[in-house]
């Protein structure tokens, strides 16, 4: 059986990556020119497409309303858990009008498996009521409108815009922020600033798929605690290479399979 693309020998590393690694492990190199950083970023983005050809939105949905509700429910819960409750949720409440008029006890019962079900019922009701009161029950297709909805920030808005409206969006969640900092693409911690900096490096038309690929890489390979550096297809360009095991065998054992990757 052939190895997956993320589990192959690490090729020789590029000069910027070596230089950055030699500066005490700080991944962002202020001396790297914007042109060099952009070239490196685009090379890594192309490699991510090879490594994760199956990257996609892991929340199940059939329309913008379902995706918006599912994304809001996914706070502090895995996508897999949300996918378990949304079939019965949307069968019972297929649109914003139905959800806005939901019986709270019944709604809480449906949401129970997600944990924090009282808070999630509140979020779902507040969101549906705002959609009915201000947007005729329809999900708006503009960032400026989406972020006025309760529980909807830029991250959720970008998920909805990118995956339900075809409007490119960068989804800066915890995986995304951690990885682009490790890549040395930004030193920013604030998600809005991270989004603005990465927008300069990656072509706009690729933002949505690029976000899925980075998040897949964070779930499968570049874990928060133990990055599988020795089995990472990005190692050649990554200044953080070495923060996790570099031994190929040890690192490969850390890589999560597609089935096991939805744990965070
Ligand atoms: S696993 Fe290691 S080499 Fe790969 S992106 Fe993460 S820090 Fe860089």
UniProtKB/TrEMBL annotation:
<feature type="binding site">
    <location>
        <position position="222"/>
    </location>
    <ligand>
        <name>[4Fe-4S] cluster</name>
    </ligand>
</feature>
<dbReference type="GO" id="GO:0019104">
    <property type="term" value="F:DNA N-glycosylase activity"/>
</dbReference>
<keyword id="KW-0004">4Fe-4S</keyword>
<dbReference type="InterPro" id="IPR004036">
    <property type="entry name" value="Endonuclease-III-like_CS2"/>
</dbReference>
<dbReference type="Pfam" id="PF00633">
    <property type="entry name" value="HHH"/>
</dbReference>
<dbReference type="GO" id="GO:0046872">
    <property type="term" value="F:metal ion binding"/>
</dbReference>
<keyword id="KW-0540">Nuclease</keyword>
<keyword id="KW-0479">Metal-binding</keyword>
<dbReference type="GO" id="GO:0140078">
    <property type="term" value="F:class I DNA-(apurinic or apyrimidinic site) endonuclease activity"/>
</dbReference>
<feature type="region of interest" description="Disordered">
    <location>
        <begin position="1"/>
        <end position="32"/>
    </location>
</feature>
<protein>
    <recommendedName>
        <fullName>Endonuclease III</fullName>
        <ecNumber>4.2.99.18</ecNumber>
    </recommendedName>
</protein>
<keyword id="KW-0238">DNA-binding</keyword>
<dbReference type="InterPro" id="IPR003651">
    <property type="entry name" value="Endonuclease3_FeS-loop_motif"/>
</dbReference>
<dbReference type="InterPro" id="IPR000445">
    <property type="entry name" value="HhH_motif"/>
</dbReference>
<keyword id="KW-0411">Iron-sulfur</keyword>
<dbReference type="GO" id="GO:0051539">
    <property type="term" value="F:4 iron, 4 sulfur cluster binding"/>
</dbReference>
<dbReference type="GO" id="GO:0003677">
    <property type="term" value="F:DNA binding"/>
</dbReference>
<feature type="binding site">
    <location>
        <position position="229"/>
    </location>
    <ligand>
        <name>[4Fe-4S] cluster</name>
    </ligand>
</feature>
<keyword id="KW-0408">Iron</keyword>
<keyword id="KW-0326">Glycosidase</keyword>
<feature type="domain" description="HhH-GPD">
    <location>
        <begin position="73"/>
        <end position="220"/>
    </location>
</feature>
<feature type="binding site">
    <location>
        <position position="238"/>
    </location>
    <ligand>
        <name>[4Fe-4S] cluster</name>
    </ligand>
</feature>
<keyword id="KW-0234">DNA repair</keyword>
<dbReference type="InterPro" id="IPR003265">
    <property type="entry name" value="HhH-GPD_domain"/>
</dbReference>
<dbReference type="InterPro" id="IPR023170">
    <property type="entry name" value="HhH_base_excis_C"/>
</dbReference>
<keyword id="KW-0227">DNA damage</keyword>
<dbReference type="Pfam" id="PF00730">
    <property type="entry name" value="HhH-GPD"/>
</dbReference>
<comment type="function">
    <text>DNA repair enzyme that has both DNA N-glycosylase activity and AP-lyase activity. The DNA N-glycosylase activity releases various damaged pyrimidines from DNA by cleaving the N-glycosidic bond, leaving an AP (apurinic/apyrimidinic) site. The AP-lyase activity cleaves the phosphodiester bond 3' to the AP site by a beta-elimination, leaving a 3'-terminal unsaturated sugar and a product with a terminal 5'-phosphate.</text>
</comment>
<keyword id="KW-0378">Hydrolase</keyword>
<dbReference type="GO" id="GO:0006285">
    <property type="term" value="P:base-excision repair, AP site formation"/>
</dbReference>
<dbReference type="InterPro" id="IPR005759">
    <property type="entry name" value="Nth"/>
</dbReference>
<comment type="similarity">
    <text>Belongs to the Nth/MutY family.</text>
</comment>
<keyword id="KW-0255">Endonuclease</keyword>
<feature type="binding site">
    <location>
        <position position="232"/>
    </location>
    <ligand>
        <name>[4Fe-4S] cluster</name>
    </ligand>
</feature>
<keyword id="KW-0456">Lyase</keyword>
<dbReference type="InterPro" id="IPR011257">
    <property type="entry name" value="DNA_glycosylase"/>
</dbReference>
């Amino acid at each position: 059986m052939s190895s997956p693309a993320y589990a192959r020998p690490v090729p020789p590393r590029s000069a910027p990556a070596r230089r950055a690694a030699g500066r005490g492990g700080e991944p962002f190199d202020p001396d790297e020119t914007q042109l060099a950083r952009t070239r490196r970023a685009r090379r890594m983005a192309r490699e991510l497409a090879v490594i994760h050809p199956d990257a996609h939105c892991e929340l199940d949905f059939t329309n913008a309303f379902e995706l918006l509700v599912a994304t809001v429910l996914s706070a502090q819960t895995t996508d897999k858990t949300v996918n378990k409750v949304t079939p019965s949720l949307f069968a019972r409440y297929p649109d914003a009008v139905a959800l806005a008029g939901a019986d709270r006890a019944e709604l809480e019962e449906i949401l129970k498996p997600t944990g924090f079900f009282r808070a999630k019922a509140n979020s779902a009701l507040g969101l549906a009521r705002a959609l009915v009161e201000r947007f005729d029950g329809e999900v708006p297709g503009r960032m400026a409108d989406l972020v006025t909805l309760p529980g909807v920030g830029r991250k959720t808005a970008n998920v909805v815009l990118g995956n339900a409206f075809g409007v490119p969006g960068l989804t800066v969640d915890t995986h995304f922020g951690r990885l682009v900092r490790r890549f040395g693409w930004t030193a920013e911690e604030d998600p809005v600033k991270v989004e603005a900096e990465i927008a300069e490096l990656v072509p706009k038309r690729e933002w949505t798929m690029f976000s899925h690929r980075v998040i897949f890489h964070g779930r499968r390979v570049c874990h928060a605690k133990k990055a599988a550096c020795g089995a990472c297809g990005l190692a050649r360009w990554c200044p953080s290479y070495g923060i996790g095991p570099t031994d190929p065998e040890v690192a490969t054992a850390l890589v999560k399979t597609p089935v096991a990757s939805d744990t965070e």
